[in-house]
Amino acid sequence: xxxxxxxxDVDALALFDFHESRAGVRGLxxxxxxxxxxxxxxxxxxxxxxAATEALVAPTVDLSLPRSQAVALVGAAARSCGLxxxxxxxxxxxxxxxxxxxxxxxxxxxxASRSAYYSVSTAGPAIYTTVPIPARNAGQPAxxxxxxxxxxxxxxxxxxxxxxxxxxxxCLDALLEYHRSLTVLGKMIAGLxxxxxxxxxxxxxxxxxxxxxxxxxxxxxPCPQPERVVGSRVHTDGDLFTVVAQDGVGGLQVRLDGHxxxxxxxVPVTGALIVNIGxxxxxxxxxxxxxxxxxxxxxxxxxxxxxxxxFFNPGKCGDSDFFGPLAELVTQQRPARYRxxxxxxxxxYRKQLGHAxxxxxxxxxxxx
Length: 368
Prior knowledge:
Radius of gyration: 20 Å
Structural class: alpha+beta
Distance between the termini: 47 Å
């Protein structure tokens, strides 16, 4: 890769050419690249952590169980590792498979068909692009771009479905049906998580208004040098919780307490959806629930991976909408661990950090 001093002349041109092609990462694979282009080369520090040496079958919650049992299992998983999978969740298997297949089909259609939808900007209710990784992480030069080895369809909800018609109908229809089904499931999960905190089924939604406002549909093409790229950086999610559907290729990894700097593969389970806790819920639960660190690694030189992440964010998201540890969870024995904050304030701080660790320090209360 070119020296940092040469960035403006070399790397910026490579980044410009990549976006101008409107072909995405998939286009690089179609062109027959055998080495990773400079904008995608991850700094050595990013890939220095030991590779995953073990697999995790995430705690499973069968949502057809009696409610008391489901609540207990959800609470235990949220407290122990911040991640669990749900089965018998009520979302038709065909709905999940149709959504994953639609994302794959969109990305694997001929270049001339998909390039019309490509956008350099990441703004808008419906976009198809390669979203850059913030240039603020340790080991990354401040002015150097870094692109993940993935192409993404981003859908933002809240302004009506008519604002999302930039994508082809075959793809959009499947994703909208998936969103409708997952919204129902998300409300159920929010109730279980709230009840497991001991504050009643409605209190979590009442405090922050849980809404499925952001969907990211990721396509990770095969890579000629998987060890030199990142699928996603190390991060926690900033929301309340995220529901993830993935195919069987694998690549999602988590860093769990007691494992040091070792990563653990999250094994794909047919028919299950993954739920991981985000930073907002960590704050609201007063550190009772864990916000799990995770990343995606590209593993295959031959096979593409597809996943869909639906983020359940606070609907109360204005500059005057404060949230903090729920009052019922603050006692003399367990005082508030965080001050009150707003969703925009949290997002600004995460942007400032580039999602680097730890993302909640600014809001912690000094208990000493």
